[in-house]
């Protein structure tokens, strides 16, 4: 469809409203054959294209302004093979639907925390979430994938077939072809998790982050623990620990006892929840202006903690209850670090956490104000961090392949040269050295 067609606006919708990109042509692919024909069409007419699965990329790289976008949202197959403990999904399948389906069998794949994210897009970059402490990255549970390559070939990749591409798509992003299906191994999950939040006031931010660092280093595999520094619309600052514990309440209390030295929290609410209940809270829905950056840290050292605590003082206070500013800390280590950095394309196996300053708002004015602040925080913490996460690539950092892939970059480049020498798949982190600049209007 083109801009004049009914349904165009719906087809171009992505998570971040701040991205105005308008593709000249959107192809709503409903079958793998549609994908194949679209790639051939693009080749014949020398058209640049992008791939939109769940539409969650922060910079909206799933859309290509004035170019062609393959919208894969209707390829949303989800199938559990209970006998073999396998899950088959298409690129349009989103996390919330998958978690509901698999947990009905008391099984799950470790996926991300926001239910509307696309599982295939997430896994291509690595994929981390509440079960990663126990089962590693989403891509660590990937068994095989089906792909349409730049030359029109359709292949199935796994450890035994095309092992080089299989290595590359576990963290290397959407650089190698269109993934039309992924197969995962499923893991057992309990009936309920202990889930909830513990909040401390601003004066506790520094010691709380120091304790968080020690918890991350200890790497309790039952304890999923993300954190966030928050500024609310009344200017109140706080630190939130987001807990998802797989075990008994007594074990959870034991594991969290180290927080007691911080004194009484402002609030503490830990309740028993099923996995879909834990995973279904849509914290950041579509329809908002968003901006974020991300940086991996292997140490979360005191100097870094001080910079982050200080950053809370300079953030513009959210203009309404609907606007949010926070610096999120995504837990890593634990089972994620069981694999060596060179085992898959995902290079950050040694990281303790991913630090993500985020603004989320309905107000364009406040959105603009916070962008500058987030970039400044990113600049200040850069000397203490060790690169970026593929899934958080944006228009400013996507050309810096080395920061995403470290020593895995040369191997990725070789695979890219072999399977996509003309860099047709160029909307992910650039590993070819011939990055396509920002499309006009972006
Ligand atoms: C609110 C929010 C929460 C998030 N939470 C998490 C989290 O908990 N854990 C985590 O690890 N990440 C998280 N992310 C990051 C998310 O994993 C990435 O943005 C991921 O790329 C989203 O995939 P998608 O299919 O939704 O995105 P899209 O925007 O549709 O695609 C992004 C890019 O992925 C590639 N791609 C997509 N589909 C295909 C395909 N079928 N074949 C080949 N390449 C493809 C393309 O390069 C495309 O430009 C979050 C993002 C947001 C906005």
Can you characterise this structure?
This protein is of the alpha+beta class. It contains 13 helices and 18 strands. It is 26% helix and 23% strand. Strands 11, 12, 13, 14, 15, 16, 17 and 18 form an eight-stranded antiparallel sheet that branches. A five-stranded antiparallel sheet has the order 4-5-9-7-8. Strands 1-3-2 form a three-stranded parallel sheet, with helices on one face. A hairpin with a 5-residue loop joins strand 7 (142-148) and strand 8 (154-158). Helix 7 (205-218) crosses helix 10. The longest helix has 18 residues, at 364-381. The radius of gyration is 21 Å and the shape is globular. The structure holds flavin-adenine dinucleotide (FAD). Residues 15, 50-58, 61-62, 72, 91, 112-114, 117-118, 120-122, 124-125, 127-129, 173-174, 178-179, 284, 391, 427-428 line the site of flavin-adenine dinucleotide.
Describe the structure concisely.
It is built from 13 helices and 18 strands. With 442 residues, the chain is an alpha+beta fold. Mean pLDDT is 95; it is low at 435-442.
């Amino acid at each position: 469809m083109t801009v004049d067609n009914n349904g165009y606006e719906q087809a171009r919708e992505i998570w971040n409203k701040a991205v105005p990109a308008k593709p000249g042509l959107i192809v709503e692919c409903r079958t793998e054959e549609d994908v194949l024909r679209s790639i051939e069409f693009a080749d014949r007419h020398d058209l640049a294209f992008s791939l939109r699965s769940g539409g969650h990329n922060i910079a909206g790289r799933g859309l290509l302004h004035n170019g062609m976008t393959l919208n894969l949202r209707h390829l949303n197959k989800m199938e559990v093979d209970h006998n073999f403990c396998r899950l088959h999904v298409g690129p349009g399948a989103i996390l919330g639907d998958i978690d509901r389906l698999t947990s009905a069998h008391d099984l799950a794949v470790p996926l991300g925390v926001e239910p509307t994210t696309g599982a295939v897009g997430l896994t291509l970059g690595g994929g981390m979430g509440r079960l990663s402490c126990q089962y590693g990255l989403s891509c660590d549970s990937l068994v095989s994938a089906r792909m349409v390559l730049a030359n029109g070939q359709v292949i199935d990749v796994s450890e035994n077939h095309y092992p080089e591409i299989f290595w590359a798509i576990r963290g290397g992003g959407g650089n190698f072809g269109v993934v039309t299906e992924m197969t995962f191994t499923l893991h057992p999950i309990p009936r309920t998790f202990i889930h909830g939040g513990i909040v401390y006031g601003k004066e506790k931010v520094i010691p709380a982050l120091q304790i968080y660092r020690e918890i991350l280093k200890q790497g309790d595999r039952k304890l999923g623990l993300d954190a966030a520094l928050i500024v609310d619309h009344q200017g109140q600052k706080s630190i939130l620990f987001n807990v998802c514990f797989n075990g008994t309440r007594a074990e959870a209390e034991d594991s969290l006892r180290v927080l007691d030295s911080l004194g009484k929290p402002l609030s503490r609410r830990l309740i028993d929840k099923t996995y879909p209940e834990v995973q279904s809270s849509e914290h950041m829905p579509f329809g908002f202006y968003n901006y974020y950056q991300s940086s991996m840290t292997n140490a979360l050292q005191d100097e870094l903690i001080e910079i982050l605590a200080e950053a809370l003082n300079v953030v513009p206070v959210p203009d309404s209850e609907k606007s949010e500013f926070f610096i999120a800390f995504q837990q890593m280590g634990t089972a994620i670090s069981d694999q060596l950095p060179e085992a898959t394309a995902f290079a950050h196996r040694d990281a303790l956490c991913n630090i993500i300053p985020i603004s989320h708002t309905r107000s364009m004015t406040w959105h603009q104000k916070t962008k500058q602040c987030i970039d400044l925080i990113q600049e200040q913490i850069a000397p203490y961090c060790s690169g970026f996460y593929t899934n958080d690539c944006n228009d400013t950092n996507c050309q810096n392949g080395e920061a995403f892939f470290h020593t895995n970059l040369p191997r990725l480049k070789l695979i890219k040269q072999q399977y996509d020498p003309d860099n047709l798949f160029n909307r992910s982190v650039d590993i070819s050295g011939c990055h396509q600049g920002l499309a006009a209007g972006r």
